């Protein structure tokens, strides 16, 4: 009974607002809510809006590159630390430190570094390397990769921590068996050890996937969606139509699509952690 107030707040603040958002997406609301059913007109308009489709394409490119690169880099860092190298504690702290920063801070720092007028490019140009270019944030063809680079720099440490915890939990007898059979270390990791860490990999993918959906702050701090719409993402699309264009029904329709995307992203994690174990 003591938890009932908490459950009521959770239902009202989270579930209630999600239901309200989905409901508003089926109305013609603009600046203020209008509880008039308008069918799926907002969704039809949404998927015929070039900016929305461009933002979805950007999110897919960013998401695939970000998740794959973070998994690979984080796993390699975890394997390196698992070999019990010197100064392991210091190196582990350095690897994990970027994850303690917010995406806003990460975006601002990387925007400064990739700014051709004051960042790495200008420094090396002033030193005599005049052909060097690192101006991704102002290049429409490379801007999305600048976002990926900043995001991987921040999040690879999280994957490293998760994978290292899993590697340290591997039965020592398994490693003894690998050595007795003469299996190379790299093959032991790839074929024997890492497959046993599948639940951790799924958890890491889900966490990274949620970061893809919530990439608004990084994009705003780093490129503000530009140049043009080169790095526009659904989260920024929603915020722009909600607060700048005062079209709450259209923004709610986009938010509902993203809600479904998040549900699809966490479904594998729910299955692995809860359903399959039962």
Automatic annotation (TrEMBL):
Coiled coil: none annotated. Residues 56-271 form the ABC transmembrane type-1 domain. InterPro entries: ABC_transporter_permease, MetI-like, MetI-like_sf. Its main location: membrane. Gene3D superfamilies: MetI-like. The chain crosses the membrane at residues 7-26, 59-81, 93-113, 143-167, 188-213, 248-274. It comes from Thioclava kandeliae. It holds the Pfam family BPD_transp_1. This is Sugar ABC transporter permease. Belongs to the binding-protein-dependent transport system permease family. It is a multi-pass membrane protein. It comes from the Bacteria. Keywords: Cell membrane, Membrane, Transmembrane, Transmembrane helix, Transport. It is found in: Cell membrane.
């Amino acid at each position: 009974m003591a938890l009932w107030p908490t459950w009521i707040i959770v239902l009202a603040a989270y579930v209630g607002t999600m239901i309200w958002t989905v409901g508003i997406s089926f109305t013609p609301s603009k600046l203020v809510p209008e509880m008039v059913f308008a069918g799926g007109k907002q969704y039809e308009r949404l998927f015929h809006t070039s900016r929305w489709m461009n933002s979805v394409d950007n999110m897919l490119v960013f998401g695939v590159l970000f998740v794959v690169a973070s998994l690979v880099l984080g796993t390699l860092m975890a394997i390196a630390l698992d070999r019990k190298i010197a100064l392991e504690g210091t190196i582990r702290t350095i690897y994990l430190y970027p994850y303690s920063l917010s995406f806003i801070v990460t975006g601002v720092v990387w925007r400064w570094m990739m700014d051709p007028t004051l960042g790495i490019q200008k420094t090396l140009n002033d030193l005599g390397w005049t052909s060097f270019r690192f101006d991704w944030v102002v290049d429409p063809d490379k801007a999305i990769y600048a976002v990926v680079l900043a995001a991987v720099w921040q999040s690879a440490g999280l994957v490293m921590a998760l994978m290292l915890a899993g590697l340290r939990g591997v039965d020592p007898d398994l490693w003894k068996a690998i050595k007795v059979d003469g299996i190379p270390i790299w093959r032991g990791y790839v074929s024997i050890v890492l497959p046993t860490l599948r639940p951790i990999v799924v958890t890491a993918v889900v966490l990274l996937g949620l970061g893809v959906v919530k990439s608004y702050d990084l994009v705003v701090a780093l490129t503000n969606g530009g140049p043009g719409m080169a790095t526009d993402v659904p989260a920024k699309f929603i915020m722009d139509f909600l607060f700048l264009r005062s079209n709450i029904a259209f923004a709610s329709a986009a938010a509902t699509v993203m809600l479904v995307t998040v549900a699809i992203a966490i479904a594998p994690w729910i299955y692995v952690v809860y359903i399959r174990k039962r």
